[in-house]
């Protein structure tokens, strides 16, 4: 698989989003672990998670613990796997989402994630979502403190606008390595953030790149050009979508969510799919 860079680390050009394995409709643990192992077998070296990827209030960090278990039980070498997690977004257990961007909370959340992942330092720790009750500089300042303390190797942010990207990079002393925003054929409003990341040489990690858990399978029927290119190439529309994103800029690393070995294995093939300029123009016009 082609590689891309996060900080000084080379990772596979397609990552794995762990969210579908821990929230509503999640599979049994055996299938989830098989999915993570299939991703590793296919060359995936970036796995994205968050402490908020869980169902019930008493299982915070379910996805983090699941990924740690899968890595520990994998028969091959996992030393090059970068696990990225997030803090600052919470699920009380009733299906809703809440925010807590206070520095004290973020530092406590990071400590808890460290224990669940079973590591001395988290590979990539990301501020999950801005909290309007807390000044953004205070939240990002906590991430800077964690970086300075050696509890995290790299720092990222998620769900940020261009101003927040520049602000975070300044607060972190130029050490911001990634931005994770929603981006897909159906959601293109993060294009300015993608372009800014390319300008600043910061990794851009599109979340829900295939349109979300419930819509990924419908991508071809919703956006005809993706289905047409896929048919001509004898690949899936999902592969075409991810290859289209990779062509946007060398900093783009899609992280499609998956809960089945078959889907992540298919997605990874997009890393080696080169689309023509004419195909990319058609796909840009879709939606």
CATH topology: TIM Barrel
> How many H/I helices?
11
**CATH structural architecture:** Alpha-Beta Barrel
Give the number of DSSP strands: 11
Uncertain spans, ≥5 residues at pLDDT below 50?
Answer: none
Largest sheet: 7 strands, parallel
Average pLDDT over all residues? 96
Order of helices and strands: EEEHEHEEEHEHEHEHEHHHHH
Q: For the record, what is the CATH homologous superfamily label?
A: NADP-dependent oxidoreductase domain
Overall domain count: 1
Cross-sheet strand order for the largest sheet = 3-4-5-8-9-10-11
What is the distance, rounded to the nearest whole angstrom, between the alpha carbons of the first and last residues?
Answer: 28 Å
Binned, the helix content reads 25-40%
Give the percentage of residues in beta strands: 15-25%
Radius of gyration: 18 Å
By secondary-structure content and strand pairing, the structural class works out as alpha/beta
Q: Which class in CATH terms?
A: Alpha Beta
Looking at the structure, what is the overall shape? Answer: globular
Describe this structure in words.
The structure is a single chain. By secondary structure, this protein is of the alpha/beta class. The chain has a single domain, classed as NADP-dependent oxidoreductase domain (TIM Barrel, Alpha-Beta Barrel), CATH 3.20.20. The longest helix is centred in the middle third of the chain and has 15 residues, at 103-117. The protein is built from eleven helices and eleven strands. Helix 1 (29-41) packs parallel to helix 10, helix 3 crosses helix 4 and helix 8 packs across helix 9 (237-246). A seven-stranded parallel sheet has the order 3-4-5-8-9-10-11, with helices on one face. Strands 1-2 form a two-stranded antiparallel ribbon. The mean pLDDT is 96. The radius of gyration is 18 Å and the shape is globular. Strand 6 (89-90) and strand 7 (98-99) form a beta hairpin. 40% of the residues lie in helices and 17% in strands. The two termini are 28 Å apart.
């Amino acid at each position: 698989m082609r590689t891309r860079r996060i900080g000084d680390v080379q990772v596979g050009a397609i990552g794995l989003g762990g969210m579908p394995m821990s929230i509503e409709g999640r599979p049994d643990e055996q299938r989830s672990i098989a999915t993570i192992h299939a991703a590793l077998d296919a060359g995936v070296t970036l796995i994205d998670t968050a402490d908020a990827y869980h169902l019930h209030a008493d299982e915070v960090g379910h996805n983090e613990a699941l990924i740690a278990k899968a890595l520990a039980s994998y028969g091959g070498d996992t030393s090059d796997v970068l696990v990225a997690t997030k803090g600052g977004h919470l699920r009380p257990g009733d299906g809703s989402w809440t925010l807590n961007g206070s520095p004290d909370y973020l530092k406590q959340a990071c400590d808890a994630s460290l224990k669940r992942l079973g590591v001395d330092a988290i590979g990539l720790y990301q501020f999950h979502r801005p909290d309007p009750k807390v000044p953004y500089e205070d939240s990002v300042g906590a991430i800077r403190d964690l970086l300075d303390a050696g509890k995290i190797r790299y720092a990222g942010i998620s769900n940020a606008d261009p101003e927040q990207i520049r602000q975070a990079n300044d607060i972190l002393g130029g050490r911001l390595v990634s931005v994770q925003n929603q981006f897909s054929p159906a959601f293109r409003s993060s294009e300015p953030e993608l372009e800014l990341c390319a300008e600043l040489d910061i990794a851009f990690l599109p979340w829900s790149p295939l349109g979300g858990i419930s819509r990924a399978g419908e991508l071809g029927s919703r956006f005809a050009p993706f289905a047409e290119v896929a048919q001509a190439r004898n690949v899936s529309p999902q592969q075409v979508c991810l290859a289209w994103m990779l062509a946007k800029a060398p900093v783009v690393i899609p992280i499609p969510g998956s809960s089945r070995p078959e889907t992540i294995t298919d997605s990874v093939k997009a890393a080696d799919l080169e689309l023509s300029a004419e195909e990319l123009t058609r796909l840009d016009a879709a939606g």
